[in-house]
Amino acid sequence: MSAIANVAGLEFRIAFRNRWIVTAISIMTLLSLILVFAGSAASGTTSAGPLTVAASSLATLCVYLVPLLALLLSYDAIGGEVDRGTLPLVMTCPVRRWQIIAGKFVAQAIVVVIAVGIGIGSAVVAIAVGGGDISTGLGDIFRLQWTAVLLGLVFLAVGNLISVTARQPAAAASLAVGVWIVVVVMVDVALLGAVVADDGGVFTKTVFPWLLAFSPTDAFRLFNLLAIEAQMESNLAVAPLTLGLPAFAPIATLIGWLVVLLAATVAVFRRIEP
Amino acid sequence: MSDVVTLAGVSRSYGDILALSDIDLTVSGGQRLALLGHNGAGKTTLLKLVLGLIRPDRGRLTVLGGAPDDAGVRPQVAYLPENVAFHKALSVREQLDFFIRLKKGNRGEGPAILERVGLANAARRRIATLSKGMRQRLGLAQILIGQPKLVILDEPTSGLDPVSRELFYEIIAELAGNGAAIIQSSHALTEVEARSDRIVILREGHIVADGRMAELRARSRIPIRIRVHVPQDTADDLAARMDAKRINGAVVELTCAAEDKVRRLADVTALGAVVEDIDVVPPSLEDIYRFYSRPDEGRGEPS
User: Among A23, A151, B195, B292, who pairs with A220 as Cys (CB 3.0-4.6 Å)?
Assistant: First the structure.
């Protein structure tokens, strides 16, 4: 345990010194605030409070931004150290390979928690300062925060897997960008295309909900929007697509991805010969 | 002293390339072993095996009585990689403390270690601002953590300035004096010659020479050179009389086997006043290294 804490402490310190933490918080906060102010006009009249409306639009922001931040934080974690020559010495110390991964992951996770916490939290503060009613909808914001952190952890695990797999830092960087484009952007477009083409057929009714839940970003969006939709009484066109899907499925997906990806990262890292 | 490292029939390949073949080697506490060989001879593979970074394909390897990556063994093993690198954003003290905690050392020893390697005044400085020599001293500092029983050094002095190099060998001698086994791979032959108790030469994954300097010298049967300084322009005449080689107008060189040295010296002194000076040049480590690195030389030699 102390070895993990030691590695995590060092990683966090380096992330802090390299301005990673400030950068992550700034980006999350800035975009949250822009969305809250830009979105307040469009909210119109719904029965839901401003926080619930904000949670709904912030969920879409998080789908794109949180995976990107997480990948940037992690894609270079192991490969970069191998490349710079800082890792072999650590690997000869009495610390297990999985402890090195765990320590780095914990430090990255803390950065994600801080960035998501402050980023989304700043939206609440902004709404309160602007005279908005924050007596309802705090639960939606909190749900958004913890699920966004979970989404971030999944993509941290993706980034760590990339960092132990790619041979060169440049290859890791392009792989990270590629994963983001494919998993975050393209999968959505492809699923949408398939649903349109299927036009309410068997695919849309049976396979599609499960594919949606299988994709980590869609699972995140689904979980949040379904909960919010119930209160907003405005049809976001999500519910009809998820018929028959258990409520816990999206969260199970995220946790499943996290476990599998971390296990794969450790398995690959164990075989690396520095 | 007890055996610190034991390799018995250890082999290791990378794909089709046999990096080490059937290596038998035992290193005792207090011994300073210099590991020599061309690039690709298997030195680094041997060090990585002993460090537990890679595993042998065949054979038995024990370090301090256990497996090299054993949790009880690792804290007693210190390692200085070639071109050691640290995190630039950290301070000297932070980086050292990280290693002290990892090796379960006593955090109180940090200042004394930095003092020992001459970095006491740089403890709070960021590693990014250190000179190359200072960074290498930090590398040296981390091998002093705890009381290592085995110290592995991979071409440690390449790029060290002369003062740091002296400090380095001083510290290594100290560690060996305290009973640690030292394994140092090096290309700096003249440097390790006087600072090792034992020389091991690897060629193409085999140990082709293993012993003390004097033993290797005797076994190689490389002739000793005797240089005789004579008055200007008498060298030709003398070279002909002594069956020797003329180096220049005033120096003649004789070669002889080690056991003939005294007899040949007697011949030279019998020449009387014409001899101005005599240099006896035994084969250097470079000569020995060249000899054993020749193809088909020394392979299978009993160690």
Answer: A151
Q: In whole angstroms, how large is the CA radius of gyration of chain B?
A: 23
Give mean pLDDT, residues B245-266. 86
Of the pLDDT bands very low, low, confident and very high (cuts 50, 70, 90), residue A116 is very high
Confidence bin at B68 (pLDDT 50/70/90): very high
Q: Residue B292: inside a domain, yes or no?
A: no
Q: Does A88 touch chain B (CB under 8 A)?
A: yes
Residue B294 resides in a domain: no
Residues of B in contact with A10 (CB under 8 A): 87, 90, 94, 98
Q: Does B75 touch chain A (CB under 8 A)?
A: yes
Taking contacts as CB-CB distances below 8 angstroms, the residues of chain A near B53 are 88, 91-92, 273-274
pLDDT the model gives residue B73: 93
pLDDT in tens, A219-252: 898 888 888 876 665 544 555 555 567 778 889 9
- Which residue, among B102, B144, B152, B183, would best test binding to A if mutated, counting the most A CBs under 10 Å from its CB? B102
Can you give the residue range of the structural domain that contains B66?
A: 3-218
Look at residue B105 and tell me whether its pLDDT is greater than 70: yes
* pLDDT tens per residue across span A120-130: 999 999 988 88
Residues B256 and B185 in one domain: no
Q: Does B67 touch chain A (CB under 8 A)?
A: no
B289 within domain boundaries: no
